[in-house]
UniProtKB/TrEMBL annotation:
Annotated InterPro entries: UPF0478 (IPR009293)
Highest taxon of source: Bacteria
Transmembrane segments: 6-27
Name recorded for this polypeptide: DUF948 domain-containing protein
Keywords attached to this entry: Membrane, Transmembrane, Transmembrane helix
Keyword Membrane on entry: yes
Statement: the UniProt record of this protein carries the keyword Transmembrane: yes
Amino acid sequence: MSPGQIAALIAAGAFVLLVLLLAIPLLKLGRTLDEATIAIRKAHENSDPLFDQANSTLTHVNTQLERVDGITANARAVTGNVSALTSLFTATLGGPLVKAAALSYGVSKAVRRRRRAAAEKAERTSRRRGGRR
């Protein structure tokens, strides 16, 4: 064997060793890709029921929102009716009630003044009588 052949054998051995060392990670990578493919397939199979449940939930939420819209519309109508009733009450009874309150205040004030004046007059009369005796 010549030194060139020995060098060729060493180079061939090194090449085989390099191929073996690179084949192990490639085989592991292939298994990893197979596992990832299986996991993706299972996730895809399990996603259909999840999407079905999400769709039914959204349908239920939309139904509830339609009910809330109806309630809101009714509340808006009630608010409008109360506003109209308040305006009607103010226009119809507000002025007369204010006038009646002012009249009753004025009458009570006048009665108090009259009573006070009568009391003062009675007190002056009693003082005069008391001074003469």
